[in-house]
Amino acid sequence: MKIGQALTLTPNVGQTSRNSLIDKTLKETNASFGETLQRAIADVNSLQTEAGAAVEKMVAGEAVDLHEVMIAVEKAKTSFDLLMEIRNKTIDAYREIMKMQV
Predict the structure, then answer these.
(1) With a threshold of 0.85, does the pTM exceed it?
(2) H or E element: which one contains 21?
(3) Which tens digits make up the pLDDT trace of 57-69?
């Protein structure tokens, strides 16, 4: 680019279509971030409850498969770990936004 030459910006067509696809998907789901987060928390809670019930049955001596108990516990642990990472990233994003100057 030469000095004094006008800079023209052209929109990225691929980016525009990708953004419209994302907008369309968000409108179709019609769920806010808060609602999605509440649903995720409820799912994690139900997995934790199921894992707790499975462990209680095993400790009580009921006929349960050890593998099923371990799978339920690991599902609950993995889903909780994922939820905590989402929380951490959300807090980090909030802090970055708060640092921005207006």
Answers:
(1) no
(2) helix 13-29
(3) 999 998 889 999 9
